[in-house]
Amino acid sequence: MSYPNPVIIVDIMADIVNAANTAIIAKLQQYDPTIVKLNYQFGPPLEIYETLAQMSTANQALKYPLVALFQPITQKKGAVNGIDSRTPLRLIIARWSNATDKAADRYDRNFRPVLIPVFAELLYQMSISRAIATTTYEKIPMDYKEWPYWDNDGKNPVVDCVDIIEISNLELNFRYKNC
Predict the structure, then answer these.
(1) What is the model's pLDDT at position 179?
(2) SS3 category, 145
(3) Domain limits, the chain
(4) DSSP states along 43-107
């Protein structure tokens, strides 16, 4: 008897972000033709900060919209039969903004046309992923925050002025990976 292939969460999330990108990119580009794709990053917050800082500030279109999965990731193993792990994740969806924008402008420019649709598409892709055991996207437990002009009390791991949706305690049940 052999143990099933290990679940690699950063890879599963990459697949989910890629599927969301495919599903939503045309809509995002209708709103803003400079959007190239969803930029998926994962790692410790400092590493994500360094990666974004290394990207040219002239290339905001390659940085944003950003989907960042923060590590470390704690996997709770053995809790449910047939499930490899139950894992609370923390991620953000970010888009560049102007430091002088007011909250109402941020909702018109970033939240309504970009951040909220990306969030909804990510949840939908999670709900249909064969790697995740869930019934519907409405039942995925999480804490959800909208941050106009995110400064995160000086702990912002993103180098630019951004608006974000922060998702924490995102409880996903990852299925065993078939060979």
Answers:
(1) 43
(2) strand
(3) 9-175
(4) E-HHHHHHHHHHS-GGGHHHH-SEEEEES----EESSSTTEEEEEEEEEEEEEE--TT--HHHHI
Q: Alpha-carbon distance 128 to 12, whole Å?
A: 12
- Residues 134 and 172 sit within 8 Å (Cβ to Cβ): yes
Q: Are 175 and 83 in contact (CB under 8 A)?
A: yes
β-strand 39-43 against 66-70: which pairing, if any? parallel
pLDDT in tens, 67-94: 999 999 877 776 666 666 678 899 999 9
Average pLDDT over residues 47-61: 79
pTM value?
0.89
Please tell me the least confidently modeled range out of 29-33, 64-68, 168-172: 168-172
Here the tokens at position 133 are 């055991």
